[in-house]
Specification:
Elements: H1 5-17, E1 28-33, E2 38-44, E3 51-57, H2 61-66, H3 77-93, E4 100-102, H4 111-121
Parallel strand pairs: 1-4
Antiparallel strand pairs: 1-2, 2-3
Helix pairs in contact: 3-4
Length: 126
């Protein structure tokens, strides 16, 4: 039986999550994307249940305040770049400089790559 695209992504995500663990001093930067939006969360895996430190998405008020142009939305590269910049700013304000990158089973290309590079430019170290 052939696997669907979603099932392949979930298998890749499980494979990545076996190796990637976040801690309180180096949380996990977890990415999720849909066709219209993109989400980035900082997660501490050292406590049970896992603690979400902060989240930024293309639906958050900070994003909507900065994305006044209609060409910037969560489904394109400009939106992903803005989300990466915002998550870096939030992390730095919380005193977090180093993170572990969890691409969520997605291939490192397109919006995922742009978000990661933008977060690096914002001051985060992976």
């Amino acid at each position: 039986m052939k696997l669907t695209r979603k099932e392949k992504r979930i298998k890749r995500h499980i494979r990545v999550r076996k190796k990637v663990k976040g801690s309180s001093d180096r949380p996990r930067l977890c990415i999720y994307k849909s066709l219209k939006h993109i989400y980035a969360s900082l997660i501490d895996d050292s406590v049970t249940p896992n603690k979400v430190i902060t989240t930024v998405s293309s639906l958050s008020p900070e994003f909507k305040k900065l994305a006044t142009d209609k060409s910037i939305h969560g489904g394109n590269l400009k939106g992903a770049e803005l989300v990466g910049k915002l998550v870096a700013e939030k992390a730095i304000s919380l005193g977090i400089e180093k993170v572990v990158f969890d691409r969520g089973g997605y291939k490192y290309t397109g919006r995922i790559k742009v978000l990661a590079e933008s977060a690096r430019k914002g001051g985060l170290k992976f």
